[in-house]
Sequence to fold (88 residues):
Amino acid sequence: MSPVPSDLPQRALAMLRAAANGRAEMTCSCEPDLFIDGLACCDQVTARFLAHANLICPARPGAIGQRVPVRLTPAGHSALTVEPLEAA
Fold:
């Protein structure tokens, strides 16, 4: 599992917010694909990072390749509540 940076890019945070709002699905796979509002996510590298960093996970079991809803893990919830760093 990859360590979670304290300063996730805005795109990653937007993906987490979409998952938190029930708008995301992922394929059941070792390299999952993410879908937002039914459309394939434009940044699958970041989507897979979120899954491998244990920030998102399938909300229920599914067959390999099947799309299932996404849920945030406790680490995903924490990543959304981290205060951004202030500019010095």
